[in-house]
Write a structure and sequence with these properties.
It contains 10 helices and 19 strands. It has about 375 residues and is of the alpha/beta class. The chain has 2 domains: about 200 residues, Quinone Oxidoreductase, Chain A, domain 1; about 160 residues, NAD(P)-binding Rossmann-like Domain (Rossmann fold). Helix 3 packs across helix 4, helix 3 crosses helix 9 and helix 4 crosses helix 9. About 45% of the residues are buried. Bound molecules: zinc ion (2 copies).
């Protein structure tokens, strides 16, 4: 079968033949890949041209965002059956630390975890993969066509779940019982700023907007660009951070309850900490790539963080629970933002165009997807958004 990734001694993305995997343990399933998402991490790995294959091979299969169909199940598989549409998780625990032993490898303490398609474990830019049932989540009927977005949504699910967990320190939240952080309507009376309107930022925004949170989005794209249009269509107020200074942005947003940083934009991320209001929470999910020095009044910033009980924290990766949360939210996301989500996947590439898919993305590009075997074969569902 074919695979897309990196090959020892060659620069850039390559296509090569590999052996089709088979079920090796009784709890494994064999999955036919339907679609895979391409994101900044994939482009970063290709750009760096560095990889460590799991078994000392001379190739590495990329891809960590996938949707597929179960083709075969091992004798001890309990919750999946042949024909199920599924999404695989990314990280595989170290098997040593407490978080990994509790299926929370996103909090791994040893750093010895592997990640499919990213680090020391082959990914999903290929025709088939086999894995343990524990790492494969079933997609509900009707949202199959959006399921390729499950992984980036799960990153936001984790970040937002953490925010809600932290804010349980204020169980009353506001005067409205229904706006408590443990209630479905928790977004009421709250305002948020999302930094970055790439696919991660927009998916985070969609979750915050699902229950009507008042939201701002800061991005450097021009007003008429697709990503800004998508953010506005989801009800956010757009702030062009190329035009407005950080101080002006703080003026515009006023005191915020939540900031979600999804761009890895170091300077802006730091300069906007003062936009947090009293008892506010700031989560960083973007990973800055280049070294950058930032000059700011650190004492004032820290004084505010302390005197206003603010929490600034980072959140990386996601575990099975967050994938399940993303899939639980997909039907509501489709219902609320269906037409917007259908514009979300801006670039679809047949797998034969893998080189083109890894050229510098167009400015209008939001999310790129590889069509591997495609849905046409065996699956039909009302989730066809396009
Ligand atoms: Zn671990
Ligand atoms: Zn309220």
């Amino acid at each position: 079968m074919f695979a897309i990734g990196l090959k020892r001694g060659l620069e850039g993305i390559q296509r090569f033949e590999v052996e089709k995997p088979s079920i090796q343990q009784e709890k494994q399933v064999l999955v036919r890949v339907i679609e895979t998402g391409i994101d900044g991490t994939d482009r970063h790995v290709v750009g760096a041209n560095r990889f460590e294959p799991p078994g000392g091979e001379d190739f590495f299969i990329l891809g960590h965002e996938a949707v597929g169909q179960v083709e075969e199940v091992g004798p001890a598989v309990r919750n999946l059956k042949v024909g199920d549409i599924v999404v695989p998780t990314v990280r595989r625990g170290c098997g040593l630390c407490a978080p990994c032993l509790h299926n929370m490898s996103d909090y791994c303490e040893t750093g010895l975890f592997t990640e499919r398609g990213i680090d020391r474990h082959h990914g999903y830019f290929t025709e088939y993969f086999a894995d343990e049932e524990d790492y494969i989540v079933k997609v509900p009927e009707g949202v199959e066509r959006l399921a390729v977005l499950t992984e980036p949504i799960s990153i936001n699910e984790k970040a937002i779940a953490e925010i809600r967990h932290i804010q349980e320190r204020l169980p009353w939240a506001c005067a409205h019982h229904e706006h408590r952080y443990d209630k479905p309507g928790w977004t009421g009376c709250k305002s948020a700023l999302v930094i970055g309107a790439g696919s991660l930022g927009l998916l985070g925004l969609s979750l915050l907007r699902l229950d009507g949170m008042h939201a701002y989005v800061a991005e450097v794209a021009p007003e008429e660009s697709l990503r800004v249009k998508l953010a506005k269509d989801m009800g956010a107020r757009y702030i062009n951070s190329k035009v407005e200074s950080s101080a002006e942005i703080v003026e515009i947003t006023g005191n915020l309850d939540i900031i979600l940083e999804a761009a890895g934009a170091t300077r802006l991320a730091l300069e906007l900490i003062p936009a947090l209001g009293k008892n506010g929470v700031y989560v960083l999910t973007g990973i800055p790539q280049k070294e950058q020095e930032v000059c700011l009044d650190g004492s004032k910033m820290l004084r505010d963080v302390v005197s206003e009980n603010q929490v600034v924290f980072g959140s990386v990766n996601s575990n099975r629970r967050h994938f399940e949360m993303a899939l639980e939210h997909l039907p509501s996301l489709l219902e609320s933002f269906g037409p917007i989500f259908s514009k979300f996947i801006t670039d679809r590439y047949p797998i034969t165009e893998y080189k083109k898919a890894f050229e510098a993305p167009d400015k209008e590009s939001v999310k790129a997807v590889f069509e591997v075997s495609g849905f046409e074969k065996r699956v039909e569902g009302p989730g066809e958004a396009a």
